[in-house]
Specification:
The protein is mainly beta. About 5% of the residues lie in helices and about 30% in strands. It has a 4-stranded antiparallel sheet, with no helix packed on it. It has a two-stranded antiparallel sheet with strand order 5-6.
Length: about 120
């Protein structure tokens, strides 16, 4: 259902995870792309977190029917991901519905973001 159409997916779309919330379906998936070292990469300090050859983004898409998907873009901004974030997992109930914890949806990442970091910025989908 999801295939490369965006610049940050040029090398592939992978590891989709689908959740149901507020009457819609949300898919979080990894977009893989080649990092252009000629461009300024915001938030990068090569002494602290050197860039690799490829970037990995967590992107989000929405659907009302699980067949037609609308891509919304990055789920984790570059200032946080540092051009590498994988494994978006959102807590859910036994029916697959995303659940709020403390009044907020939480996303757990398996790797990336330059090591342990917390980000409490607003994201709305």
């Amino acid at each position: 259902m999801i295939y490369p159409t965006q610049d940050n997916e040029i090398l592939g779309c992978e590891d989709p995870k689908v959740y149901h919330a507020n009457g819609r379906y949300y898919m979080f998936y990894n977009g893989i792309w080649t990092i252009d070292r000629g461009e300024e990469q915001a938030g990068q300090d090569p002494d602290v977190y050197p860039l690799g050859d490829v970037g990995c983004d967590i992107n989000v898409a929405v659907s009302d029917d699980l067949i037609h998907w609308e891509k919304l873009g990055l789920a984790v901004p570059y200032e946080v991901s540092r051009f590498w974030a994988k494994g978006a997992v959102i807590p859910r109930n036994a029916q697959g519905d995303a659940v709020k914890i403390g009044g907020h949806y939480l996303m757990y990442l398996s790797e990336g973001c330059g090591g342990p970091r917390m980000w409490d910025g607003p994201r709305t989908w």
